[in-house]
Design a protein that fits this description.
The complex is a heterotrimer of chains A (273), B (251) and C (253). Chain A is an alpha/beta fold and 273 residues long. Chain A contains 7 helices and 10 strands. In chain A, strands 6-7-8-3-9-10 form a 6-stranded mixed β-sheet, with helices on both faces. In chain A, strands 2-1-4-5 form a 4-stranded antiparallel β-sheet, covered by helices on one side. Chain A starts with 11 loop residues before the first strand and ends with a helix. Chain B folds into 2 domains: 37 residues; 211 residues, MetI-like (MetI-like fold, Orthogonal Bundle). In chain B, helix 4 crosses helix 12 and helix 11 packs antiparallel against helix 12. The longest helix of chain B has 38 residues. Chain C folds into 2 domains: 32 residues; 213 residues, MetI-like fold (Orthogonal Bundle). Chain C is globular and about 75 Å long. The chains are: A alpha/beta (273), B mainly alpha (251), C mainly alpha (253). Chains B and C meet through helix 2, helix 6, helix 7, helix 10 and helix 11 of B and helix 1, helix 5, helix 6, helix 9 and helix 10 of C.
Chain lengths: 273, 251, 253
């Protein structure tokens, strides 16, 4: 039997993107990312891992259209990205919820902003609240929720507008270790339903491997891609896989990159130290 | 270039200059009645006149004296009371409500009472400044004590510090920034207080002059005194702010 | 815990009144200067019955409502403009500072020329006194909105209008309410000192009038009413502020 392989153009194409920031007091420019080339295929879950300050968040913000690269371009379905639009939605590390709104109203927020038509906003929001496992908490306010619950609201809000691409910027960074693990599982469970293209930034090696189809490893600033590792572990992922040889290999490989990066950074700061 | 043009100092200065220019030109063009609004040039001439009269120094010194005395009293009385109340909870619960009630009332309404009690001389003005300034001093001193990091106190105690040592070496320095804020607030209220009190009734002082000039519709001279008071307020609070910044590090 | 606080507060006031009354009756305080609670209360009742109290209250509260109301509208409007646009803020800054620190009562003769003796002058003074804290706090509120919320809104394609009305303004409400609380006190002060100098009706005028006639008890009646108004007003806004505390979005919200 012939299996027909549909070859699609990559969903996202990042070509030669460099991101630079003005340092305060006109002390020059700080290059966060330098010459990034990356292709992301449809329906893949790509994790980006790297030390702090290597510009991974900046890359995500650029894909979201919230900052402009100093050079290079980002293409979505072949079209150049110039600003935010309905096909991308973001989940933030510090949740960025509106404290005066209830859970339901927070999830509605994205729908309101995009003037969502064709469905009652409350009904739609309610569906996504249930999807992330918060049904019964619709009338609660963020200050009454735990960190994990707040991030679920953030995820619901992003999914509610049915984006093509989900961008997650260290979404579990503000949570404690146990909640992180639980949330990671939760996220995969939710993602499996639609299998949207997703980009997930983290500085946890375990999270990167466990969640991703592919891990992109970055160096410290100026950030460059130093490795791209396809993760050949079957889905759905289980905790037991973390003990497998393959997993341990991945882990070692990534750690070597990150440690090497840190050593180089230290050498720059204190060459004789 | 664009950066300078957008800077705070530049835009503010331009705004002031535009305002001064409009203020000067409008009466000349008869767009407004100069009698009511005066002009910068007239205010300048008036200022020059006033500065040369002997009574100017006398008025300013009277007001200054009343203000400084009232403020000094407010600090000397208010800071210890505030620190005390901040430390002892039950006492604070008892004394706080009247103090907060006083804070919430327009204290300047009490001026006629002080005049009744102390006459039209300096003492009633000092009383006004005292009451108006002491409340923020007390309230902020209380706040200063209460926001001292309890772990600091714990550290001192762990080294067997006695109560008055803890007070002197930990609580006092840590509350100092809040106390300074209280003094600064008391200062600005005190300045307003002394002027209003003098306007209400007195024989001399800046407020008294303001009243006389106002009643005679000598707007140019009036504006000079108004600007003088504002400038003094600005200078005094800036000075205290510098002080505050100096002590910020000790938090 | 809270109940014992309220109790101590009430006890505190009661103690003061009792001590006051006792001190006068025992000759420690001269009633000419201080009057005493029982007399004040009696005079309050008399004034209430004669309608004098309500007339004064009506005048003062009316002036307060207009002055404070106008300052809130102007303060919010200009505050949002200045908070949103830095150039506007820098341009208005020196004038706000002047309004804050100048003895505005000094302008009352000019107001009298413009508006005549009485109500309009008082309203003008009240407005000018109350306006600066409302505006300054509104500016601070808008400027201190958690940038993460603004970023999130933008990421969902929010237009500037949406960002202002759905994020920035609601987020500034706690600070705005604080500004209203400060403005309320100053508006009331403005009404009272306006009436002291430039009016012939109202609670402030009543204090000055009775003061000149050395009628201490009547002075205190008006003072008590003013104090109660001030406390009631600021307390309600304080309560509102505390209730809205969860609207503040710190990090991790």
């Amino acid at each position: 039997m012939e299996a027909s392989i549909v070859i699609r153009a990559p969903h996202i194409q990042i070509a030669g993107v460099t991101i630079a920031y003005e340092k305060p007091d006109q002390a020059g420019t700080f290059v966060a990312l330098s010459g990034i080339d990356l292709d992301v295929e449809h329906g893949t879950f790509v994790t980006i891992v790297g030390p702090s300050g290597c510009g991974k968040s900046s890359l995500l913000l650029t894909i979201a259209g919230l900052i402009q690269p100093a050079s290079g371009k980002v293409f979505l379905n072949g079209k150049c990205v110039t600003g935010p639009s309905r096909d991308r939605a973001m989940v933030f590390q510090d949740f960025a919820l509106l404290p005066w709104r209830t859970v339901l109203e927070n999830v509605r927020f994205s729908l309101e902003l995009q003037r969502w038509a064709g469905e009652d906003l409350n009904d739609r929001a309610r569906r996504f609240v249930t999807l992330v496992g918060l049904s019964g908490f619709e009338q609660y306010r963020p200050h009454q929720l735990s960190g994990g619950m707040r991030q679920r609201v953030g995820i619901a809000r992003a999914l509610a507008v049915d984006p093509e691409i989900l961008l997650l910027d260290e979404p579990f960074g503000a949570l404690d270790a146990q909640t992180r693990e639980a949330m990671g599982n939760e996220l995969l469970r939710i993602w499996e339903q639609d299998k949207k293209t997703a980009l997930f930034v983290t500085h946890s090696i375990d999270e990167a491997i466990f969640l991703g189809d592919r891990v992109v490893v970055m160096s410290p600033s100026p950030g460059k891609i130093v490795d791209m590792i396809p993760i050949e572990l079957p889905r759905p992922r289980t905790i037991e896989m973390m003990d497998s040889e393959r997993y341990v290999d991945y882990r070692r490989r990534i750690r070597v990159h990150l440690m090497g990066g840190i050593e180089r950074e230290r050498a720059v700061i204190a060459p004789h130290g | 270039m664009v950066n300078t043009m957008r800077s705070r100092g530049f835009v503010s200065t331009v705004a002031i200059l535009v305002f001064l220019a409009a203020w000067e030109i409008a009466p000349r063009l008869h767009l407004v009645e100069g009698f009511y609004t005066s002009q910068p040039s007239h205010v300048l001439t008036a200022s020059w006149e006033i500065l040369r009269t002997p009574s100017f120094v006398k008025d300013v010194s009277v007001s200054l004296e009343e203000f400084v005395l009232g403020l000094a009293l407010a600090v000397v009385v208010g800071v210890p009371i505030g620190l005390l109340l901040g430390t002892f909870q039950t006492l604070r619960y008892l004394v706080d409500p009247p103090i907060m009630a006083l804070y919430a009332t327009p204290q300047l309404a009490l001026i006629p009472i002080y005049v009744l009690w102390l006459g039209i001389g300096m003492s009633s003005k000092v009383a006004v400044v005292f009451v108006v300034a002491v409340i923020p001093v007390i309230v902020n001193s209380i706040a200063g004590v209460r926001q001292v990091d309890p772990s600091l106190v714990l550290v001192a105690r762990s080294f067997c510090a006695r109560q008055h040592d803890v007070f002197r070496k930990v609580i006092l320095p840590a509350s100092l920034p809040s106390v300074m804020i209280g003094i600064r607030l008391g200062m600005s209220r005190g300045i307003l207080g002394v002027v209003v009190a003098e306007m209400y009734v007195s024989q001399d002082g800046v407020g008294n002059q303001i009243l006389k000039l106002g009643s005679a519709f000598r707007v140019d001279h009036l504006l000079f005194y108004v600007l003088l008071v504002s400038a003094f307020g600005f200078a005094a609070t800036s000075l205290v702010r510098k002080f505050e910044e100096h002590f910020e590090g000790g938090r | 815990m809270r109940n014992s606080r309220t109790l101590l507060g009430v006890v505190s006031f009661a103690m003061i009144l009792v001590a006051w009354e006792a001190a006068v009756r025992m000759g420690w305080l001269n009633p000419f200067f201080t009057s005493r609670p029982s007399l004040i209360f009696a005079a309050l009742v008399t004034e209430a019955k004669s309608g004098e109290l309500f007339h004064n209250l009506h005048v003062s509260l009316g002036e307060f409502a207009v002055g404070f109301g106008a300052s809130v509208l102007a303060g919010l409007f200009l505050g949002v403009l200045a908070g949103w646009n830095r150039i506007v803020e820098y341009a208005l800054d020196p004038f706000i500072w002047f309004l804050y620190s100048a003895p505005l009562i000094a302008f009352y003769p000019i107001f009298v020329i413009w508006f005549g003796l009485g109500t309009y002058t008082v309203i003008a003074i009240s407005f000018l006194l109350a306006f600066p804290p409302v505006m300054v706090n509104t500016i601070a509120g808008i400027k201190s909105v958690n940038p993460a919320m603004l970023l999130a809104a933008r990421s969902f394609c929010a237009r500037p209008r949406d960002v202002l009305w759905k994020v920035a303004l609601p987020a500034s409400v706690p600070m705005i309410v604080a500004g209203l609380r400060l403005g309320l006190g100053r508006a009331l002060t403005g009404v009272i000192i306006g009436e002291l100098f430039a009016s012939s009706a109202g609670l402030g005028y009543s204090i000055a009038y009775n003061g000149q006639l050395l009628k201490t008890t009547d002075m205190f009646v008006s003072l008590m009413v003013i104090a109660i108004l001030g406390v009631a007003g600021t307390q309600s806004l304080s309560l509102l502020e505390a209730h809205l505390d969860f609207w503040r979005a710190g990090p991790g919200l």
